[in-house]
Amino acid sequence: MRASSLMAQKTRHSAKLDQLPVRIVGLLREIGVLGDQRGCHVYVVGGAVRDLLLGQMTLDLDLAVEGDGIAFARAVADRYRAGLVVFERFATARLVFPDGLKMDIATTRRESYAEPAFLPTVQRASIEEDLYRRDFTINAIAMHLNPGEFGRRLDVYGGRHDLRAGRIRVLHVGSFQDDPTRIFRAIRFEQRFRFHLESSTLRLLRQAASMNLIQQLSGPRLQNEILVLFAERDPVRAIARLAGLKLLRFLHGRLRYTADVKRVVLALPKALAWWGKQFPDVVIDRTSVYLMALSSASSPVVIAAIIKRLACSREQSRKLSAGGKQADRILKRLTDRGALRPSQVYRLLVDLPSEALVLLLAKQMSRQQATRLSLLRRYLMVYEKSRAVTTVLTGKNLQAMRLKPGPQYGIILGKLLDARIDGLITSEVEERAFVQEGLGAWSDCRAASRMLDKFLRTKTAKRPSSMVSREG
Ligand code: CTP
Q1: Total domains in the fold of the chain
Q2: Distance of alpha carbon 455 from alpha carbon 444, whole angstroms
Q3: Which of 8, 130, 139, 168 is a Cys-bridge partner for 108, taking CB atoms 3.0 to 4.6 Å apart?
Q4: Which helix (H) or strand (E) holds 167?
Q5: β-pair type (61-66, 102-107)
Q6: Are residue 225 and residue 260 in the same domain, yes or no?
Q7: Which of 181, 66, 186 lies closest to 113 in space, CA to CA?
């Protein structure tokens, strides 16, 4: 081949990889050189190649090495002072470069599954075999990194063709059975790229789902798939697809995508957008909210079973538990009655995670009751503001005022906080006066509480503006 046409071909090969940021292209070229020095072929594989071919930016790099991938990963880590975690069992290593870039490096391998749904055992194999063990053709394309071959595509199973046709296709009939997480991955890619499941892949997916292999997945593995799916840009479509394929039963047999639940799920993107605009500093765990919306009509028993099935953390459990019918009761109390004081709103909402507040909003949005919705929005704004309110006096101050310690401290400080939230008390002097007011009654909790309520009622009567009005 003439030097000029060889050059042209090389440029063509590297054109896709050259779309990556310059520093990453430079790094990949150097890694390719290292491959030559160590006598092994190195490839970038999987999602990164797929995304590059789709013209999408990706920084999640998976490398495959025909040879000892772990030794290669150590050499790369040494050279670039990258952090390294090795997973010997899977012949994989994860590197974190000083600038934060993450990269997985693995030995090319074949996998065998002792039992369906269990983790595989791995054996070294060629790059072609390594690509064959993968989930879908679109994820089974490699790009060479060695000099001279840099950027050359290795596409043995028609991945590029499927990418162009917008098709999700497994490489072999046992794919879903080997690894049922691929059932969820298929939906994830189908919905993310607006692709379709090729007909025999869809049949195999249904078949694997009917064998209940998903039930054999451990809680963390199932949770990971569900949460990754719900973390997609448009989880609404993914949820509808799960429901359409009758896959929600793997979360719980009684979980239904009813018209009501669907309306709440559909309202969530708007609720999240409103929340993000109003309270950009209150970070919401989107994936949990979607799961909460999905189980929003479920009983506490069903929600508890979902939490158990997914082996949720304590924090996740707290969020999910706040999302069932309890949310309906709170919504009713907020929007059914006459105007509430900010402190009443505060008391109703204070124990709820922020995710449950977004869910309340989505629920109300799904009901198309404009007045109640604007009232709820106002309550949420009032509530978020009141979360920053504190009292000046603390338990120590009460002690210094010679009040006998006991449960009444909680009552006094709680009432003080309410009065602060409602704007009835605005200074330390007033706080002290408030405490002095009931000094005689403090030893008896009930009497103290009654006394303070009376005190607050007189103040409220003088300042009716402390109510949140129902009108906008
Ligand atoms: N893979 C697989 N089967 C799985 C998980 C992963 O075959 N159950 C392979 C695929 O080739 C996939 C690659 O491992 O492309 C990397 O997996 P992962 O990072 O989970 O997927 P990505 O394709 O990068 O997806 P995403 O864009 O969602 O990160």
Answers
A1: 4
A2: 16
A3: 130
A4: strand 167-168
A5: parallel
A6: no
A7: 181
> What is the pLDDT, as a whole number, of residue 403?
80
Q: Under DSSP, is residue 406 helix (H, G, I), strand (E, B) or coil?
A: coil
Tokens of 108: 């090319």
60 lines ligand 1 (CB under 6 A): yes
Which of 358, 388, 418 terminates a domain? The answer is 388
Q: Of 364, 388, 412, which residue sits at a domain end?
A: 388
Q: Do 323 and 407 belong together in one domain?
A: no
CA distance 409 to 425: 18
Residue found under tokens 């993000």: 276
Residues 76 and 152 in one domain: yes
Among 45, 54, 59, 62, the mutation site with the greatest number of ligand 1 atoms within 8 A of its Cβ is 62
| Nearest atom of ligand 1 to the alpha carbon of 46 | 15
Assess whether 33 and 123 both reside in one domain. Answer: yes
Q: What is the mean pLDDT of each run of 10 residues along the chain (472 residues)?
A: 57 77 94 96 96 89 96 97 93 94 95 76 91 97 96 96 98 93 97 97 95 89 94 93 94 94 96 96 94 93 95 94 86 86 94 96 91 93 94 89 82 90 90 77 66 72 60 46
pLDDT at 472: 43
The pLDDT of residue 320? 93
Q: Kindly give the distance from the C-alpha atom of residue 117 to the centroid of ligand 1, in angstroms, as a whole number.
A: 16
- Ligand 1 pocket, residue 135 CB under 6 Å: yes
**pTM (two decimals):** 0.86
* CA separation for the pair 367, 257 (Å, rounded): 17
